[in-house]
Amino acid sequence: MRRVGRCQGLGAILFLVAGLLPAALSAVAQAPQAPPASQTPAFQDSVSVGLVLVPVVVRAGAGFAKNLDSKDFRLLVDGQRVTIESFERRSDAPASLVILQDLSGSMATGNHLEESRDVVRFFLTKSLPGDEFSLATFATEGLQVEVPFTTNTATLRDAIEGWEAYGTTALHDAVARMPQISVEGHNPKRFAVLVTDGVDNASKLTPEQARAIVQEAQLPTYVLGLGAGNPYELSPEGKKVYRYADVLNLLAAMTGGRYYSINSAEDLQKALTAILDDVRHQYVLGFSTGDGAVKFRKIQVEVEGKDRRTVVFRRGYKGTPPAGPRAGG
User: Fold this and answer.
1) Cα separation of 44 and 24, whole Å?
2) What is the pTM of this model?
3) Going along 27-154, which residue ranges are E strands?
4) How confident is the model over 263-282, as pLDDT tens digits?
5) What is the Cα–Cα distance from 37 to 172, expressed in whole angstroms?
6) Per-residue pLDDT tens for 175-194?
């Protein structure tokens, strides 16, 4: 029989992270009807002082740029440089991982469920002291948090053995709940892994609305598309061949994660290794926000150095402007 847990409440939150408003997220998650397609879920017009966390991965050639310091980064919001007030760079720093698993009927094809179990087993096997995991699934009944954040790997291993594929898929509704789950985590390093074939046939929210919610949180989202295809492949007429893959790729890119097309066990192992490398070599930059109007604000991160580097970071946040004077330079 399939095991289903319950989602714990958000509890007391000492500060708002990255403009994330738990009350608004809860309202969206519980709303019985979808908002108009032209609108995204509403948020408050102003917020008190909070902290925006910006996870950053810096790749140099085939590896990662290691041992960078805060002075090596330039952080800009809406084109204006801001002071980096907090900085995390330890490769052994513990992380909080949300695994969001698709258990809808389409996942019964091929070997998708066993591949999904392998995803969980991989991260548990590679875990470091202090790493914590939350396991959530979605199908006909919507999203269920089967295991709230825990360091108990035995509980997680037990939960995945009861997985069965059934019912319809409300993928985008489930995606929109990820920040609500992640805010319960205890570590500055936070990320999510979504495992799905990409099919959605029951969501109330649109892909754009779900992306907007996740993008406002400090939550890089890595997507494993099981048989979902290449988002860049075009038909002879120039149209997207894998439209589900295109949606998943956009979600990953906008949040600072990556999309991986999985067609074999080898693809899966390569993707999992790459995701873990990203997380372990992730820098976390932080800055305060002040009072003011809430709107989407563009984030840009630049890294000093003459060697060729690829910098991956979240594209922005919805909230008030940075607090205090801007950094010089």
Assistant:
1) 8
2) 0.74
3) 50-60, 63-64, 73-77, 80-82, 86-88, 95-102, 132-139, 142-150
4) 999 999 999 999 999 989 98
5) 13
6) 999 988 988 999 878 899 99
